[in-house]
Design goal:
single chain, alpha+beta, four-stranded antiparallel beta sheet, 1 helix, 4 strands, membrane, Type II secretion system protein
Length: 146
């Protein structure tokens, strides 16, 4: 007697059929482009403001140098005060002084003057204001030539 065996061939399973096509929708692409655009805008703005800040800092340092140079011109102030103005390149400056009361008196206590130096530059106009105290210059002693 012959036996018959039924052999069933098993084919590989078919991949599941997607209910829709694979990929990004138009809305997803638009959102991604909007996010990318905002990110690039912020990056551009940050790098641009960094360069602007460096230029502002250099201008400020130059103004400090101009102001300090003016202070170094005089270690004392004449009795009439110190009022002057001028320019140094793109920097305009003015110096003014007024007597400063300490409430102290005596032969070894010099009168003081409050000195204000204003250095201005740039558009929009920026200003640096320096304040200090300087002693009043002693008048020459009688009979002695300066």
């Amino acid at each position: 007697m012959t036996r018959w065996h039924c052999v069933r061939r098993v084919s590989p399973p078919l991949p599941p059929r997607p209910s829709r096509l694979q990929g990004f929708t138009l809305l997803e692409v638009l959102v991604a482009l909007a996010i990318l655009g905002m990110s690039l805008g912020l990056l551009y703005r940050a790098s641009g403001s960094g360069a602007r800040n460096v230029a502002d800092l250099e201008a400020y340092q130059r103004a400090v140098i101009v102001g300090q140079s003016l202070l170094d011109l005089r270690s004392t102030v004449p009795a009439a005060g110190w009022n002057d103005a001028g320019t140094d390149g793109d920097y305009a400056w003015r110096v003014s002084s007024a007597p400063f009361s300490t409430g102290l008196s005596g032969p070894n206590v010099p009168p003081l003057h409050a000195v204000e130096i204003v250095v201005g530059w740039g558009e929009p106009r920026r200003e640096l204001v320096l304040h200090t105290l300087r002693p009043e210059r002693k008048p020459p002693e009688p009979g002695r030539t300066p």
